[in-house]
Amino acid sequence: MSILRIDLIAAVPDIFQSPLESSILKRAQEKGLVTIVTHNLHDYAKDAYKHIDDTPFGGGAGMILQCEPIFECIEQLMSERTYDEIIYTSPDGQVFNQDIANELSLKGNIIILAGHYKGIDQRVRDHLITREISIGDVVLSGGELPALMISDAIVRLVPGVLGDAESSLSDAFMNEGLLDCPHYTRPAVFRGMEVPEVLRSGNHALIEEWRIQQSVEKTKQLRPDIFDKYKEQ
Q1: 125-151 pLDDT per residue, tens
Q2: Do the beta carbons of residue 215 and residue 179 sit within 8 Å?
Q3: Got the DSSP string for 62-80?
Q4: Which residues contact 207 (CB under 8 A, 6 or more apart)?
């Protein structure tokens, strides 16, 4: 069985530390199902001060990540193995969704380059990057958090990572692309608020029908864009 490998490249890789050492991402690595390696761009800088950014040609505010340390890092990795995707986290990219996560979870080796400052030298994007991914129409301080979000969404889909209680098969967007239905647990009555009777009936056919209906109604109300796609299927 092939093991998914994700290489995370960043100007501030310390941001990755806590999430990668916690919960599902940690367990996936401990089980030997996933390998996640972080790389500090400053280690590939050439000057004594480990600079990896500079002012943009043509003037303007902000700093740009230089192409040299990025090329050095990625080319070194590419000399060691073949990569299926070299991803750059960018507001310009394709908006990340469950379909993309499903696709990437089937890959073998992935590099995710986290942008920082004003962005990266365009030559990196033109000659190294195979895919650009955005997590939404929002500006962040850097691409480290999006890189972690993408990694988490991918890793949890790898067979064996999740136990039955955490199964991804019932997650939102995994059921015909719909939002997840409401969920309840004990007690059955809390401060006068009761769990729907159907969920306590023991009739699994009715329960499944109720859950699908709730998912459809919830998606229609909260995400009409997704509901329209569901109707077209």
Answers
A1: 999 999 999 999 988 989 999 999 999
A2: yes
A3: S-EE-HHHHHHHHHHHHHH
A4: 198, 199, 201
What domains appear along the chain, each with residue ranges and CATH number? 4-155 (3.40.1280.10), 172-232 (1.10.1270.20)
Full-model pTM: 0.86
Distance CA 83, CA 78 (A): 7
Place of tokens 């809390």: 190
Q: Are strands 85-95 and 64-65 parallel, antiparallel or unpaired?
A: unpaired
Instruction: Label each residue of 23-65 as H, E or C.
Output: HHHHHHHHCCCEEEEEEEHHHHCCCCCCCCEECCCCCCCCCEE
Place of tokens 């991803």: 87
Is residue 225 within 8 A of residue 216, CB to CB? The reply is no
